[in-house]
Design brief:
Helix content: 40-55%
Low-confidence stretches: none
CATH architecture of the largest domain: Alpha/alpha barrel
CATH class of the largest domain: Mainly Alpha
Strand order of the largest sheet: 1-3-2-4-5
Structural class: alpha+beta
Largest sheet: 5 strands, mixed
Number of helices: 24
CATH topology of the largest domain: Glycosyltransferase
Strand content: 5-15%
Radius of gyration: 26 Å
Length: 677
Amino acid sequence: MDTKIKPNRLAQEKSPYLLQHAYNSVDWYPWGSEAFEKASKENKPVLLSIGYSTCHWCHVMEQESFEDEEIAKLINNHFVAIKVDREERPDVDSVYMTVCQALTGSGGWPMTVMMTADQKPFFVGTYYPKEARYGRPGLMDLLSNVAKKWDMEKESLVEISHKMLSILSDELSFKGKRGDLSRNIIKRAIVSFKDSFDSIYGGFREAPKFPTPHNLMFLLRYYKLEKDGKALEIVEKTLDQMYKGGIFDHIGFGFSRYSTDNMWLVPHFEKMLYDNALLTIIYLEAYQVTGKKLYKIVAEKVMDYVLRELTDEAGGFYCAQDADSEGEEGKYYVFTPDEIIVLLGEEDGAYFNNYFHITERGNFGGKSIPNRIRSRNFEESDEKIEKLCKKVYAYRLRRTHLHKDDKIITSWNALMIVAFAKAYKILQKDKYLTTAKSAVRFVEEKLINHEGRLLARYREGDASYLGYLEDYAFFVWALMEIYDATFEISFLNRAFKLNQDMIELFWDNKNFGFYLYGVDGERLIGRPKELYDGAVPSGNSVAAYNLIKLARLTGNNKLEKLADSQLKFFIPSAKDYPMGYSFYMMALLLVLYPSKEIICILKDEKDQHKIKKVLERKFMPNSILLIKHNNNEREVNTLIPFIKEYKLDNNKETYYICSNNTCSAPIYSIEELEEYL
């Protein structure tokens, strides 16, 4: 950054991504009325660039083009330039990504959009080099051609923008589309997962390979319900291979964004909070099901990484760490054999190099990404290696700097809260519950405004942007998971109330489904409903899951009906490509397969620990469990009216169990409950 250059308007923003561009020669504006009014007044098209701070190709495009004087002059003379952080404005990103994918068949970041002053796009694309290269047009030529056409044939670009708006409208239209619920769509999803499974290296299809942990979460639940051994094999093989590969940071822990090859060896090195949250969840659940110690160790290592490097002192979790160091992707993570020998000495260095396959030839630009792909004993712990890793980690920290995006995003924090809550439930370590509760407290104290409205982003004392559907749905899920881990009824109460707020703000009463942004949000050229489960589950998928769980936990018939509408709303979209809706499928499993409801009436709150002990290794995805005792009776009876009729039988702890809408005779001891389960 050349601080002699006068900063642009982005210098006043909080987003690390926008701040990265504050000293570009391009005269950037943040998204807002000032930029669009300028474009209208000066009769200029708008250049919109969308990305995020840990995006490698966003950095490349900045260095090639936005720091280039020739490009900057062209943009400043002929366009009004706007920068958007997609993590702060998923609403803006979703609208233009929908157009990009509809027209080009793909999308990604950085996203490049050219549009009119009334926000209607006439050109959409992704990364462009400054000059044409490898069949990809150059940004210089694109900008020059659009500038000339705007001056000479503006009407033709405006006409294109109207057509694109019509395409957007069609893409966002779900009018009257509903379907019937059946297991057929689940079976089609299972067939697709099996057909696309890589039996050698795990995961699905060819490179690039993304972790997409919710695919594995769905398969694990299907295995549990159908006893389908192949589904479990897919989960275990994928979890094993991801751990062995370079996508897992064997030195400092945590997972990178995705793998560029089939073996999970060479990652795109950025580490995102949401990936690590979801991967923690699936490794913990797989440990519950299989008892495989490796999965517990991996989950704990990921949580150690998050606590060490992505946790704010006030309790929230940061967004991400960058792929690049000193302008070079992966530099922070790779080593040469000689480098390790100098650091650790001849004997220990050779042992370390052999263990992690660090070779003279290398596997990434002449250097090596530590990995265990060739190891047969990859599940075994090695105390010597663990000690050496600490030395290498300390050296790595000194060697080069790694940028961190310290925004705190509500939705991603909620996913990490789910992970820590599950970790407490399964591993019974108090520090995980303390971490989960601390993060909940952070959100409730820092990311809810005076009107009670959840907000989307916090950084440096500033909480901004009205919360989106993901923020609400994911946080409701998080609160329910803490209830499930602790049986503290206040968390279930908060989940229920926040879910009611979500319905009021986002539900489409006419055509069903939840909108991405609220009724009180900024009006864009479209109001998306995102259904597809991408890198994270969609807000609509998680909302469907929450509705069913809350309906069963509280006995609320209105939520049950809403859940039914939500599930049927998905069918037309999900039926053609069910693999892309795996979290939604998890919601379907809740209603299409037998369920259990367990109501525990205890004499005293302290008796809960016995139930926690029984449940820590029980994976029961289609079960709900409620506890009433002398300390929570009033609050439980208020939130869950049907539970008033459930009482101690003959002054004994009493367990009422219902399965698939049929109730059994009550049982009277924790031993009987454990035997039943």
